[in-house]
Amino acid sequence: MPHYKILAPEVKSMPWQEKTEAEKGNSPLWRYAENPIIDRNPIPGVARIFNSAVVPYEGAFIGVFRAEQTNGIPFIYLGRSADGIHWTFDEKRIEFVDEEGRPFQPVYAYDPRLVKVEDTYYIIWCCDFWGASIGLARTKDFKTFVRMEPPFIPFNRNAVLFPRKVGGMYKMLSRPSDSGHTPFGDIFISESPDLIYWGRHRHVMSRSGNWWENLKIGGGAAPIETSEGWLLFYHGVTGTCNGYVYSIGGAILDIDEPSKVKYRCSTWLLTPEKPYEERGFVPNVCFPCATIHDSATGRIAIYYGAADSYVGLAFGYADEIIDYIKANDAASADDQSIGLR
Ligand code: BMA
Questions:
Q1: Which of 40, 144, 170, 280 has a Cα at 20 to 30 A from 197?
Q2: Rounded to two decimals, what is the model's pTM?
Q3: Could you tell me which residues come within 8 angstroms of residue 241 by beta carbon, excluding any fewer than 6 positions away?
Q4: Whether the Cβ atoms of residue 41 and residue 281 lie closer than 8 Å to each other
Q5: What distance in angstroms lies between residue 3's CA and the mean position of ligand 1's atoms?
């Protein structure tokens, strides 16, 4: 029996593979042996799929995928899977509409997250709003996708919605940035009563003195509610003489006041080590965007983009991940504060 509880529905047929001897590494996560799960040129007109998000849906899985089209422009495509591992994609990109049902496509769309709150699924992504900013859309049936008000003005990236209201408010993490390959960035949280008006902004956490995340950080998968707090997988970036390196980090946020970080792991949970992570369109990138998690077993599957070229899967048990984060905790007084000055 897990000693920490995941407070979410059971997912009986979630993708899973036990840890093998070969995968025994330095962290509580291990990779799926058959990675990457999505290879290059997966559909006509799309060269690469990576940084993508999935949810359980009608006894199977559905997801929104960052697809780099062969003109180099990213867009979001819908995919379906019976097992969460083998995916089939719509050959046409998602067609968004406005509140009146008129076609309303973003200029581009990348790094989507997909989060169910109550009976609605929300897609949150990076788009152009006279500069890099956050796009938000809702769907109930994965047939009609309604774009909503942009939550923030530019420049911003890596927005992640919480899977339930906290204190009666929707909560969203984001990372104010610039329009380019941002060389700075910390995670903030904002709240909204209606997903239109956002405010009560708070600082959550900054890049740290640990070198793997000393340049910038950004939200990753939607936080998982657990008996210890919100378990957040995020990305941390360092700069090298050869470019940025993106690793996956872990933190646990206070359940009622998630601008407070309870624990923050001083080490990465996953860093580029495999050929499909170290080599690709952008080398050395592990970029988490979603998890599937099962409250009955405490199993967590993390979907991450690899080298801006592929989708990889990593696995871990909530108990081991939380214990590891707590054992390697380096949350600063600033992280632990309410985030207001
Ligand atoms: C970030 C985003 C991600 C990408 C990463 C590495 O700025 O654009 O989509 O995975 O860079 O290239």
A1: 144
A2: 0.98
A3: none
A4: no
A5: 35
